[in-house]
What does this fold into?
Amino acid sequence: MSAKKKTALTTLIIIIPTTIVVALIALLNGFNDWNALVYAVPQGLSGQTLQVPNEQTINDVRGSRLVLLEGIDNAIQRLIDSQPKTSIQKSTGEFDTTYLAYLLKTDRLGPAIEELANLEAKVIKVFGEKTANKEVVPEIENLMGPLEKDDQQQQQQQQQQQQEEKIDDVITSRLELLESIDEAIQRLIDSQPGTSIHKPTEEGFDITHIIQLLQTDQIDAAIEELTKLGGFDTTHIIQLLQTDQIDAAIEELTKSKSEPSTAIHKPTEEGFDTTHIAQLLKTDQLDAAIAKLTKLEAKVIKVFGEEAANKEVVPEIENLIGALKSEEFSPTS
It folds into this structure.
């Protein structure tokens, strides 16, 4: 063998699964002269990029299922045709898959899987397991496998949707009870003819007494009495007193005795706003909502008195608080 390096023209053809043929052409000087390798791309392939198929739509999926079903029909027909002596007519009449196709088109995957299982059992019974396994069973299993996965995913989506609907129903029920509380408070407000504080109240306040305090220059004591009248708008009168407009304040108080709604107003719905409570109910902050409802109940009792509050509002508030504490209004129940 010559000591001189042999020169060899080497051509390597590599077949790539993507059907792209790449030729490796090199003039090799020695056994390890791999730097001389040159890639030669066949004409027509240069510059091309692999196309990634777009994501399938639901119609594409349904179409694929029907194609696989057609493969089952064809396999059954071949099996029938291969057995001329069989008592089965040379048609797929005995193995009609029209209803199965309908189930696949309407995404009723559970019933479709059952129909496929029944079809497979019938084919095995009629043609025998060995014969059926050669032609038909692989086709059926080829469709049944993906259907079972899709059916499982479909069931999970339905469960998630049902859970979301249940949560929506729970929140709606909470808000309906809160609305009942608002309506009860409004009825109680509307039942007040104006203000009853020109008469001695259950808390012992009396406009006549306040006027007497003002007439004897006990301004601070009068302001204190007015401040204690929670739920009634005495802001304007207090402002008059704080700016030394004593006579004007006395006039307003005197006017309120004959026209109660002019100076000291009855409680308003703004004073019992439940917007924040509604937000807490919508966002499942139930402990915070219960705390707010408890404060609302105390405020209603303070403003209207325990007897009046217990008739209208307190039962509605306790109804919602009790429901929130129970599993009835828990989204996870």
User: Anything to note?
Assistant: The CA atoms of residues 76 and 235 lie 91 Å apart. Strands lie at 7-15, 21-29, 38-40. The first strand starts at residue 7 and ends at 15. The chain has four domains: 1-52, 59-135, 159-192+269-329, 207-263.
